Backbone:
């Protein structure tokens, strides 16, 4: 068995699991724990990895990526923490409303797009809200090897500080929590100043926070190699559009509330993917012909790629116009 | 003119750029010989740079006239030494005291830049974040792949290993760990059949 992306079916290999616990943590966030029905050990994962959760929602298949937040040294469970997004596309609502202990579900093998750089002398974690999840696994992994780390965690309020109390009581000298409603904020400039050579900083949170960390670190002379981030984008709705897939020889309609990738899958096209959030690059597709405007939303292609109109990431990007023909 | 454009080669062969002033609280510049000229050019880009800079300079003969001009830039700290080996303890100490945001600039010969880069990467700076600019001699630091001895200042191909005496072919295959190019025995199949040495890049 292999988790390599180069297998014949799209996406990473799948694992059948049973929901072993559903633990509400606060008004918005619930933890879901999974075990394997055959009792076998889960494939090992490195901290920062995510899994794609397959949800069977009334005939519609939802595939959402979530960071694994359980201890990587424990092969008996995988755990994710899901923030309910009432304005979202429905995946998190499905998890919160429909998933019960004992349910059979399917996960993909873990894929890591946000790994620790283990050459680092010190690891500084910056979390915003539900962005805490990958750091739960990273902290567990580094604690095993007596790694040098600290966490700066910004959340809206004490009531919504997912895992904040647990982290503060376990690691009182390493964890710093900042509550928006008490006008507390991460003092990023002071934090970056004076870190020892070989420090790596990792940020997971809203887009604004990620951009702020990258920009501030660059202004302070930090090499971009030492600044790591992960942001999964959820596909945004948009005007329906039509796409011709020339290799598959079909023309498909992309609905308002589905992504181009989801539309391809609905029509039976086996399109590659891993993260489904514009980060991994696996679904990159060549454009054969286009008459209209692309709505690029991914983090994978660079500005030149976006401008030239020869490539699209169907997991999050859309198209507005008359004709779009893809090499798929 | 101390600049030399190395012809394109295999991926292993290091390439060098030209130094640009980057944002940072502290700046470490390590140069030998004509490398001083690259620091003079760098200082001309950014008036505030030298007041935050520590310059470590090894004139090694051909740079003797440049020392005074470097001192004239009034760097925050200036060290001049007789050899790279003499400067190593200082380089290590500076790096061990340094913080993130330190910018490292290396200029001069390939041997100097390669060895200083080793110190900087060992201290935790990614090699891709260290700026380099080649100036001066094109002599190479070579490792004999047979006896593992290092021969400095190799200017001809082939050359004789300073340690084991084998005739070595100068390759572009480079080791960042050793900061040296590979030298491979050129007459192993037919001992004594050694081409006449030619000067590198002539």
Residues:
């Amino acid at each position: 068995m292999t988790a390599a992306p180069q297998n014949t079916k799209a996406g990473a290999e799948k694992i059948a699991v049973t929901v072993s616990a559903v633990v509400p943590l606060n008004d918005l966030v619930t933890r879901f724990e999974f075990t394997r029905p055959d009792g076998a050990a889960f494939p090992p994962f490195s901290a920062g990895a995510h899994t794609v959760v397959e949800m069977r929602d009334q005939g519609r298949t939802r595939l959402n990526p979530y960071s694994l937040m359980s201890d990587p040294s424990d092969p008996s469970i995988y755990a994710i923490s899901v923030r309910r997004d009432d304005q979202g596309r429905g995946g998190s609502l499905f998890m919160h409303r429909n998933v019960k202990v004992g349910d059979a579900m399917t996960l993909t093998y873990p894929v890591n797009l946000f790994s620790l750089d283990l050459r680092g002398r010190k690891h500084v974690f910056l979390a915003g809200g539900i962005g805490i999840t990958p750091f739960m696994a990273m902290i567990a992994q580094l604690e095993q090897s007596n790694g040098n780390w600290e966490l700066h965690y910004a959340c809206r309020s004490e009531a919504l500080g997912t895992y904040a109390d647990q982290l503060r009581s376990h690691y009182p000298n390493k964890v710093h929590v900042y509550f928006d409603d008490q006008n507390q904020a991460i003092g990023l400039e002071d934090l970056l100043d004076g870190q020892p050579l070989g420090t790596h900083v990792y940020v997971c949170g809203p887009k604004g926070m990620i951009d702020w960390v990258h920009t501030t670190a660059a202004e302070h002379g930090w090499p971009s190699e030492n600044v790591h981030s992960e942001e999964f984008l959820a596909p945004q709705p948009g005007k329906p559009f039509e796409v011709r897939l020339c290799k598959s020889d079909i023309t498909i309609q992309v609905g308002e509330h589905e992504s181009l990738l989801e539309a391809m899958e609905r029509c039976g096209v086996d399109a590659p993917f891993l993260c489904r959030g514009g980060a991994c690059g696996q679904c990159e597709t060549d454009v054969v012909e286009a008459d209209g405007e692309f709505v690029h939303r991914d983090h994978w292609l660079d500005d030149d790629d976006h401008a030239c109109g020869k490539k699209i990431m169907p997991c999050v990007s859309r198209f507005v116009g008359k004709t779009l023909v893809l090499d798929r | 003119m101390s600049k030399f454009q190395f012809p394109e080669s295999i991926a292993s062969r290091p390439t060098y750029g030209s130094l640009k002033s980057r944002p940072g609280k502290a700046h470490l510049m390590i140069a030998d010989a004509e490398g001083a000229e690259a620091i003079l050019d760098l200082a001309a880009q950014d008036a505030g740079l030298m007041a935050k800079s520590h310059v470590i300079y090894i004139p090694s003969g051909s740079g003797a006239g440049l020392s005074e001009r470097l001192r004239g830039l009034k760097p925050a700290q200036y060290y001049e030494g007789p050899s790279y080996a003499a400067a190593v303890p200082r380089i290590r100490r500076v790096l061990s005291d340094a913080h993130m945001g330190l910018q490292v600039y290396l200029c001069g010969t390939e041997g100097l830049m390669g060895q200083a880069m080793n110190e900087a990467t060992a201290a935790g700076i990614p090699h891709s974040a260290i700026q380099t600019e080649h100036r001066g001699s094109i002599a190479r630091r070579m490792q004999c792949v047979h006896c593992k001895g290092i021969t400095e200042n190799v200017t001809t191909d082939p050359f004789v290993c300073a340690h084991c005496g084998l005739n070595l072919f100068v390759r572009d295959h480079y080791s960042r760990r050793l900061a040296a190019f590979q030298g491979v025995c050129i007459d192993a199949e037919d001992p004594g059949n050694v081409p006449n040495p030619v000067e590198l890049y002539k």
Remarks:
- The helical segments of chain A are 91-98, 133-144, 164-170, 188-192, 207-219, 260-266, 303-308.
- Residues 1-7 of chain A have pLDDT under 50 and may be disordered.
- Chain A has three domains: 14-112, 122-230, 241-326.
